[in-house]
Design goal:
mainly alpha, 90 residues
Length: 90
Amino acid sequence: MKYFTEDDSAFYGRQSAFLLGVEVNWEEAADDEANIAWVQNLIDDVPPFSDGSRYLNFAGFQEEGDAMTRQQWLWLILIGNLIHIWAYLD
């Protein structure tokens, strides 16, 4: 991801070395508990290696409810407001 600048595409956070998207599929319902536990453990182990940003297309099962979406939208509103302020002051 960091081989391009933020101006080169729609992706924010180009300072990151890579983008991790976890998708897990299985066929047998009997394997639900083990597979869900495996992927949750993987996700729980990632934060020390992450800058904490989220890509909203990878929202998962909304375990956080709407909190993650609200947090990202508030961030975008803040940035939008700062851009307007900077333009006004410039």
